[in-house]
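In this supplementary section we document a worked example of the pipeline. Step one takes a protein sequence of length 295 as its only input; no multiple sequence alignment statistics are reported here. Step two produces a three-dimensional model, which step three serialises into structure tokens for compact storage. The input and output of this example are shown verbatim.
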Amino acid sequence: MRAHDGQAGANRFGDKSLLMTALRVAGKLMPGDYARTFVYLNFVYKPRLALRRLVNTFYRMDHVYAVLEEFKRSYKGPFSILEFGVADGYAFAKKAFATRYLGMEDDIVCHGFDSFEGLPETADRRDLSSIRGGDWKAGQYRGRYEELNDYLTARYRNCRLHRGMFDATLTPELLATLRTDKPILVWIDCDYYTSARVVLERLIPYLPSGCVVYFDEYEFNFGSRFTGEARLVHEINRGEFGDGIELVLDRELSWDLSRCYRFINQAAPSAFERKTELRRVTQWRKHAGNDSPLP
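The serialised model returned by step three reads:
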């Protein structure tokens, strides 16, 4: 069989779909390629694109509630949430409210980390865009520490802001608290590869398997493994941070992107504890007699 014969066969099967049949009929009824293209773009392509985005587009807060509900339902606390790159605290305050809404404010400490001076200068190629004009600027995302701290203090009792560079604020004393307040969500929104690497270098010895790590800028440079947070995921899974350590994409939390991962460390010194033992239900043996696709 010639190579193009297989493609022709695939096209014949595809032609039987309702969409392809409708497009074929419409193409025959309309005069001229200009009219056909106009109708396709405005009445087929754009509506389908809008519907796909409506259904599949990832929203940053979806997985926050999903993670909190999972750990509330199945695991024993106390827990912690850590956000790196707080800026003005828009997303951080929403996480704090989520703990209150789900009745977990006494079970979760929310830690926010930022210099509040904006992004630093960088010349590291691993931080830079592959497209001219696509780089972040020094000072971008400058936060207002005092204003945010007053706002959070007046509303929530489980928020802690840590002002300074990540390597200075991730102190041994703070890291030691994570042995008790086990992290369930690490939210990385610090934009640069170099900053994200500092965070995970410090945190990895304290993260239990099953902790969710969210990368807000994973799609930087189209998710290339040479730069940004995608490079960090690649390096961890290549073994640069140790054997038995990996980040597994959680497709249910990530939707159609690659932002949410489950951290796995076979030698993790601490682990989550289930509230009840997981029971595997033994299925009844079924004998032949129903050969249809139905169970």
